[in-house]
Design goal:
Length: about 260
Amino acid sequence: MGHATYFKKKTTVAEPTSAIRSRLMRITTQTIIFSAIVAHLCFADESTSYDSKKISETPDLVQSCEAADFQNNGADYCCPVAVSDSLVWLSKKKLFPRPYRKPEDQYSLVKELTREKYLNTDKHEGTIVYSLTTGLQTFLNDRGVTNSAIKHSGWRPCKAEYQDQQDVTLEWIENHIKGTRVEWLNIGWYRQEGKVLRRVGGHWLAVVGYHNKTCYALDPSPRNGEKKVVHKLSISPTVTRDLRGDYKGLPATSEGMLEHFK
């Protein structure tokens, strides 16, 4: 899907009605946000949560990029690809010690992130919250980044040192994307079955902005095509429902979570 000029792709802003549903699942589903994770590498910048330059300058690599030659065609690489997009942007702002000037540099970055020592991306389960928080901290430490802080909001398990709060809130998402902070959302897709919601899949997105209860995000899914697409997600608190599915932590209740209707 990807090619060597993806840094120069034209940016398209998708309306909420077409953001995730038509491009990813193509079935009647509901998106529930389980976790939000932020990495902050520069504590001096506390500016706005919406920065058009941040949105336009952050790359949008597709996880099935043919030129990158990712394992299993990148099927489970949504998390390392989303993280790499944010790290490349930080390197452009000279907040990350290693420059990523060429597409090939980002391909190598993704492969490095997937290693067991870091994000430990699994070919069946992808990347879990525990691995992202601990692995990213190790990755940053190994590269001499000392002014970093990683925080997690959500009910997925992680080490206590990274846990900030149990529920993902709109205020948390907005406050933690300000300035030079980078943020990622872990979402689950659920289909209505009677009075319950059943899990049909999960994914990672890179957050690039927030304004007026709308989250601006980049999606590494191959169904987005070759052009860069900035998704506008209208998010609201969930109506409490039972969540079912063959996944760790389920069954559960959606109380205190956020959702995005497609």
